[in-house]
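Morning!

This is the sequence you dropped in the shared folder:
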Amino acid sequence: MLTTYIAVQANYANYQFGHLVIHRDGRLFSTEKTGIQKAINILIEKGILPANVSVTLVEIPKHSIVPFRLFEPLADYDVLNTLDDNGKTFNPQIGSWAKINDKEAFLCTTGREYVHDGTSNPLFVKIESGNMPMEEILEDIFFLSCLPYTRPEDCSRFPLTIKITDRRINNLGSDFDSEALEILKSENIKI
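The structure's back. C-alpha cells below.
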C-alpha cells in the first residue's frame, strides 16, 4: 500500500519529498518497520523518492499507559464570567502540548474551545524512529486533527491519518467465523 500511495502522491506533487512521517495507531511492530523500510527502499530504487529521504515513524496510541491531563489555572483569565469552569481550573486551549523528552509528548487536540463534558484527554505521541523534531510532528498532528470531515463544527481527538486508517480497516475487515475455525481445528488444519 505504501509504495502505491506514496508513488501516486509523488506523481501529483510539484516538489520532491524530503520527509515522510508515518503515523501508527498504537505500537509499531518490528515486522511493520521492516515492511515500511522495504517499501521506502523500493521507492528510492525506482527514483520516486530521493536517496536522502528522511523517514520518521510515530506511534499514537488511543490510550496512554500513563494518564496525563493539562489544565490552565484560573488566575490566567481576566474575564471569569465568560467561561464555564469548576472554580479552580480550565481545560487547556486546543493545541496545547507538553514535551516529555525529545521522543515523547502529549498534545491537546481537543480543549475548552469546544463544549464537551469532562477534561481534555491529550494524545500521547512517541517518535519510534527518525529525526524530525517533535515540535514539527506535533504541529502536523494538530493540523490533521483539525480536519473532522464528519463534524466540521467540532474537533477530533485523532488526526485524519488515524481516522481514515480505522475506517479502511473496518471496511476491509471481515467478520470472525467461529464455526469455520472450529471445523478447521477439528480437522487438524493449521491456520
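Headline: The chain has one domain: 2-186.

More detail when I'm at my desk.
O.
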